[in-house]
């Protein structure tokens, strides 16, 4: 994951069987060619998957592309599995531990406040109305509260932000200082340019 305090839940993936480092034809939209001189040896195509070898080779029986040195065969992501391979992740839960410090007032506070006991933690699941202090969250609930659809998100990926707001008036006893959780969709699913996330 990128950034502090982040994590990844993998719900789907595209397998490229037998992929290993070597030479192979580039994808047609990234490296079309008709002769070797169209493929500059040692050069990268901005949309390409690897370093050009200087050869123009057959991608298939009717299309030629520049040969590359990279992860071969190249990844073809035209057919994303739908439904997602791990759509059950909607029922997964996560336990968030968070704390805040007000150094000027020598006050520290955790999100495991007084009402959160061992017994409570064993059975609670966060709900903004009925269990707003429970630090155990259903992934499906988080996605729904962020305004997104888990089934769609699980297919191509997405980003959800969780804000934990500590709006505390320290003139009051510290027990009144409690976290407020909010969830935000941070990924524009209207964009068709490079949807999802790539890990190689």
TrEMBL record:
GO terms classed as biological process: calcium ion transmembrane transport; response to ATP
Keywords carried by this UniProt record: Cell membrane, Disulfide bond, Glycoprotein, Ion channel, Ion transport, Ligand-gated ion channel, Membrane, Transmembrane, Transmembrane helix, Transport
GO molecular function terms listed in the Swiss-Prot or TrEMBL record: ATP binding; extracellularly ATP-gated monoatomic cation channel activity; purinergic nucleotide receptor activity
InterPro entries noted in UniProt: P2X1_purnocptor (IPR003044), P2X_extracellular_dom_sf (IPR027309), P2X_purnocptor (IPR001429), P2X_receptor (IPR059116), P2X_RECEPTOR_CS (IPR053792)
KW Transmembrane helix (keyword) present: yes
NCBIfam families, per database record: P2X (TIGR00863)
Protein name per its UniProtKB record: P2RX1 protein
Name of the coding gene: P2rx1
